[in-house]
Amino acid sequence: MMTVEVSKCNGDVKLAIKRLKRTCDKNGLPRRWREMEYHTKPTTQRRKDKAAAVKRHLKKRAMFERRLEENSFRSKRGAKVPFESVIDINMLRSINDQDI
Fold first, then answer.
1. Cβ-contact 61, 96 below 8 angstroms
2. Given 20, 37, 47, 75, which is the most exposed site by the fewest CB atoms within 10 A?
3. How many H-runs (helices) and E-runs (strands) does the chain carry?
4. Alpha carbons within 13 A on the beta-carbon side of 11
5. Domain assignments of the chain as residue spans, ordered by start
């Protein structure tokens, strides 16, 4: 069983509860409680994990494309072009059209 110690409250119960909640949130306990509330089949869990990975990948790629477009705009104003902007945006868009 996991224990969480809350100290330095000087007898203030409200402050102790607030610190306990903050500590639990930092450790990720509410998320673990929700996961352990119901049993999920391994195939369902793998499907969820894969969907989350695809979502992370798409988000990362969108951020990268946005940075490339911003950098190409900045380079027209005379700023130095970073190494990332050397990659062709059309190539990235063709990769975007492919299935993951």
1. yes
2. 37
3. 4, 0
4. 0
5. 1-38, 41-100
pTM reported for the whole predicted model: 0.46
Nearest by Cα to 12 from 4, 22, 20: 20
Q: Each residue of 39-56: pLDDT tens digit?
A: 999 999 999 999 999 999
- Paired tokens of 13: 């119960």
What tens digit of pLDDT does each residue of 14-43 get? 888 888 888 888 888 888 888 889 999 999
Task: Give residue 53's identity as a one-letter amino acid code.
Answer: A
Q: Tokens 């069983």 map to which residue? A: 1
> Is the CB of residue 84 less than 8 Å from the CB of residue 71?
yes
Quote the DSSP letter at residue 40: -
Output the CA torsion 71→72→77→82 (10° steps).
Answer: 50
Structure-token match 């990268």, residue found: 64
pLDDT of 68 over the 60 cut:
yes
Site of tokens 């903050």: 22
